[in-house]
Structure formats: structure tokens, C-alpha cells
Amino acid sequence: MRPAYVDSALKEIAVLSKLRHRNIVAYKGSDKTAPGYLHIYMEYCDAGDLEKVMRKPKSGEDYFCQPASLWEILYQMASATTFCHEGIDLEEPERTAQRHQAKQCFL
Q1: Between 67-86 and 93-106, two packed helices, what is the crossing angle to 10 degrees?
Q2: What is the CATH number of domain 1-44?
Q3: What is the pLDDT of residues 30-49, one digit of tens each?
């Protein structure tokens, strides 16, 4: 691994280790296993990554998810992005209650 890449990877690890948000996969650790190899360990996601969720159509459907699920995914991405850029968590207690109430309407 080139020195510039090592520096970049170490900066990324420093940022990842500080991020704490429900919609961001958590950093668990890292190590060097051999010269030039750096492993970054992240939280396990039961449903897989976003690409897998979006590519796999549910049985009997032509599209990857219901519109309500798509809006939930977009909201989670916007919440995580806002948190990264501005340090603001969109999931305030009253807003959380409103979202859960709205979510029940879609079921």
C-alpha cells in the first residue's frame, strides 16, 4: 500500500471510529495482517448492504421494494448524510413519534 493510501485509510478510520448514528454502519476495529494489507471491520448488517436490498425484488413483484420502504430508505440516507455534514440528528424524539405513527398508516 502506498504511503498516500495509508494516510488516507488512517484518516478514514479516525472518522469512522467517531461516527455514532443509527443509520450509519458502525466501525468495530481495524488491523494490519501483512505488509500492505489493512482490514477495516464494520458492524454486521442482517439484510446485507444497500445494493443487495435494492437489487433483490421480493417474490411476485417487479420492483425492489414498496414505495413506503423506498421513502424509509431515502429518509435514513438523508438523516445519516445530514448527521455527517452538520452533526444534526434528524431523529428528534417528537419527530420519531410522528414517523412511527406515519409508518403505521403504510402497513
Answers
A1: 160
A2: 3.30.200.20
A3: 998 877 788 899 999 887 88
Cβ–Cβ < 8 Å for 13, 40? yes
Dihedral angle sign, alpha carbons of residues 31, 51, 4, 37: positive
In 45-104, where do the E strands start and end? none
Single-letter residue type at 65: C
Vertex 10 angle, CA 5 and 89, to 5°: 120
Q: The C-alpha cell of 9 is what?
A: 485509510
Q: Residue with C-alpha cell 458502525?
A: 26
Q: Locate the domains of the chain by residue range.
A: 1-44, 49-107
Q: How far apart are CA 13 and CA 16, in angstroms?
A: 5
The pTM is what? 0.63
Contact call for residues 19 and 27 (beta carbons, < 8 A):
yes
What count of other Cβ atoms lies within 10 Å of the Cβ of residue 52? 11
